[in-house]
Amino acid sequence: MRRGTDLLIDQIMMMMKNPTIAVLLLTTVFINSFAQKKTKPMTCKPSALAAFKPLPKLKYGCTDDPTESDEKLLKRPERQQAIKILERRLERFTNPAWWQAIVDDLNLCELHRKPGVLSKDEQERVRIGDYPLDLFGNHSLRLALLPDPCYQTGYGGSNAFLLYRQAGGVFVTEVFDGFFSRAANPMGMDVGDLMGQKVIEISTSTGGLHPSVTNYYFVIDPKTHKAVPKKIFRGDKSPTNEISSDLLMADPADLGLPIDATELNIIRGHKLAPSFSIYAEDEEGEIESPRGKMKRSVLRWNGRIYQ
Q1: Which of 186, 191, 218 is nearest to 203 (CA)?
Q2: How confident is the model at residue 40, as a pLDDT?
Q3: What are the sequence ranges of the domains in the chain?
Q4: Is 82 within 8 Å of 62 (Cβ atoms)?
């Protein structure tokens, strides 16, 4: 999820002088790694189809007010009640077969809805990021990204819920309320180990002419079984669980950078890395990237936070 395909990068480098084309290309840069890994024909496996269960939808009445971007909409009582109902429905996702199934397989079956190889059109939709992915995670932690029917509908307005499976029950935490982005498939999830504690990484991306990535980190509270922020980065005033970087739009090695210097490459080998890189557009930067001059900063773990 961290970079687009080489083809897109080549196109962007050639067409960056045309803003209209650049915008269209950059909005598709964040093709999820789920699609990039697929080299064999994509298949909806019978076992995954048997375990598949459609995710519930957020349902409430939209107003006639055309200002769907107004954040006041997020506080409407009927919307808040609909979210509570949705959380209760997600708590009923306790079927062991659903949790045992691989998330990638469930996503393919959601698209195909029958056993067998996906059609060429379906496979292409997945590869280019045209099919919105709404489920991420592993056998005990899953992230569900559910569309909002009224808020920021032109930019994929959604709410994200983290599902944690424990002792046969499912505990649900709303981790994003009113998320939206110009990027295709703008969200992903990973889990890493930090001194024996599972840290959940939720990565998000933007589109447009100045694409960036922002990651958020959580852990599961052992008492409530709910997700809580893991504040492992130095903030302006206090530690925070959020970190951002501009996108290089290229492979670091092609720019003379270390191979592992990808933007926010924080979880490696299922562990939190001792250091990682962030980038920012800077006219005085020493890195010549496809999007212009960039500045690189390296944050290092000091035993408590990255700084």
Answers
A1: 186
A2: 81
A3: 31-57+73-182
A4: no
